[in-house]
């Protein structure tokens, strides 16, 4: 052993420790261990006794085999071989049908990211990207809620979310929701919440992430709508345009979102109204639009009934988030929630499929934040607001580690 080796090893150890501290933030290690334990238990339970894939997953697996170099017929054959599906040739219908295919082939991010894992592990490699995404979602939400609220509230709400049916199924299984929500959480972490400053670096990063969200699951408009509502809410509250911290996010992400939507529609033209008319057995578009409120109500009732059977934890998060709209009308999280809820409602009714509110999944990170906000509102006595702030910062930061005040959660 040379004299320089111990010093080198010590330097590596210090770098690893520094990196670990940055990842953990000011969250105690025992909290991360508890969340990791819940995550492992939930993951093992769902992948042992649940079903972490559906018919959608077959298409994504076949697309990944295609990206790995196989032609369509061979990719479908390999998919059927992995899933032991003798009727796998039906995938040709989805890939070739002019109504359905525009919903499938633009979702390129998940299959593209899965290529190296599938080349190494076969079809099982399709679980790697959702697994990494699910872990990032937990880490990101925990860090963000710790910035906005207290560590204990962040821990409690995150723990409940980990054990929900929606999280275990759609964020650990072979679905596009996992990477799409991971990118969404990354964007939320950079938005001007809890004193966070949104600069040029954040604008560039969020633009790239928004493109990834759109081409993961066409859910970019939900996030853009939420940001626009936050900007408008802040403008109405402050009545000073130049001091609005949401100016740059809107100025950058709204055009990026619109550009992504236009590119998507040019590349994969999809007539959502034609689908809405077809799936609801309506005679024409005008009649379908007139009946939309009734269709929406029936769909919402059916989805809510499924919640009582499948996902009481998420039903509780929903209730807390909706109550927070009334209890915390001055919170920017309320604006984010309303701004993401309205397009999610529209997407849900246009798809008209009973799915336990699956089409609301793009807004779930905001839903969790709003629910945590209500818990903080009820359990933590807020300090007096400072001049220029709309709502006070939570008193959960140690001395010397305060962040600059802005419009907070």
Structural key phrases:
single chain; 409 residues; mainly alpha; 20 helices; disordered C terminus
CA-CA gap between termini: 54 Å
Share in β-strands? under 5%
* Rg calculated over all Cα atoms: 22 Å
Instruction: Enumerate the spans where pLDDT stays under 50 for 5 or more consecutive residues.
Output: 383-408
Q: Pairing-aware structural class of the strands and helices?
A: mainly alpha
Count of β-strands:
0
Shape: globular
Q: What percentage of residues falls in helices of 4 or more residues?
A: 55-70%
Give the helices and strands as they follow along the chain: HHHHHHHHHHHHHHHHHHHH
Describe this structure in words.
- The chain is mostly helical and 409 residues long.
- It has a domain at 129-379.
- 70% of the residues lie in helices and 0% in strands.
- The chain is built from 20 helices and no strands.
- The chain has helices spanning 4-24, 29-49, 55-67, 72-83, 91-96, 101-104, 109-121, 128-148, 151-162, 165-170, 177-190, 200-217, 220-238, 247-267, 272-279, 285-290, 292-310, 312-327, 332-351, 364-379.
- α13 packs antiparallel against α14 (247-267), α18 packs across α20 (364-379) and α19 runs antiparallel to α20.
- The longest helix is centred in the N-terminal third of the chain and has 21 residues, at 4-24.
- It is globular.
- The termini are far apart.
- Residues 383-408 have low confidence and may be disordered.
SSE blueprint:
Elements: H1 4-24, H2 29-49, H3 55-67, H4 72-83, H5 91-96, H6 101-104, H7 109-121, H8 128-148, H9 151-162, H10 165-170, H11 177-190, H12 200-217, H13 220-238, H14 247-267, H15 272-279, H16 285-290, H17 292-310, H18 312-327, H19 332-351, H20 364-379
Helix pairs in contact: 2-9, 3-4, 3-7, 8-9, 8-11, 8-20, 9-20, 11-12, 12-14, 13-14, 13-19, 18-20, 19-20
């Amino acid at each position: 052993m040379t004299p320089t080796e111990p010093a080198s090893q010590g330097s590596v150890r210090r770098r690893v420790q520094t990196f670990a501290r940055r990842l953990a933030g000011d969250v105690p290690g025992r909290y991360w261990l508890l969340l990791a334990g819940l995550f492992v238990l939930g993951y093992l339970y769902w992948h042992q006794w649940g079903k972490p894939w559906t018919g959608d997953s077959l298409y994504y697996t076949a697309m990944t085999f295609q990206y790995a170099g196989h032609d369509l017929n061979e990719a479908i054959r390999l998919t059927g071989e992995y899933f032991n599906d003798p009727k796998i040739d039906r995938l040709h219908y989805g890939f070739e049908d002019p109504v359905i295919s525009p919903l499938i082939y633009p979702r390129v991010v998940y299959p593209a990211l899965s290529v190296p894992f599938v080349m190494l592990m076969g079809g099982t490699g399709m679980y790697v990207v959702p697994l990494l995404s699910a872990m990032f979602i937990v880490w990101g939400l925990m860090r963000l809620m710790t910035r906005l609220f207290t560590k204990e509230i962040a821990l409690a709400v995150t723990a409940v979310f980990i054990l929900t049916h929606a999280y275990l199924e759609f964020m650990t299984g072979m679905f596009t929701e996992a990477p799409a929500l991971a990118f969404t959480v990354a964007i939320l972490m950079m938005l001007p919440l809890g004193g966070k400053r949104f600069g040029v670096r954040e604008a560039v990063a969020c633009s790239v992430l928004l493109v990834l969200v759109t081409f993961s699951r066409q859910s970019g408009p939900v996030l853009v709508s939420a940001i626009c509502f936050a900007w408008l809410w802040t403008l109405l509250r402050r009545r000073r345009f130049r001091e609005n911290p949401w100016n740059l996010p809107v100025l950058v992400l709204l055009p990026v979102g619109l550009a992504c939507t236009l590119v998507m529609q040019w590349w994969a033209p999809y007539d959502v109204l034609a689908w809405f008319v077809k799936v609801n057995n309506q005679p024409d578009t005008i009649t379908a639009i007139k009946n939309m409120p009734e269709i929406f109500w029936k769909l919402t009732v059916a989805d809510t009934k499924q919640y009582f059977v499948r996902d009481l934890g998420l039903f509780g998060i929903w209730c807390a988030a909706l109550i927070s709209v009334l209890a915390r009308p001055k919170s920017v999280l309320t604006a984010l929630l309303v701004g993401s809820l309205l397009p999610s409602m529209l997407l849900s009714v246009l798809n008209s499929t009973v799915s336990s509110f699956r089409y609301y999944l793009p807004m779930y990170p905001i839903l969790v934040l709003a629910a945590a906000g209500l818990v903080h509102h009820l359990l933590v006595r807020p300090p007096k607001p400072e001049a220029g702030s709309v709502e006070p910062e939570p008193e959960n930061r140690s001395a010397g580690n305060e962040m600059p005040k802005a419009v907070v959660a």
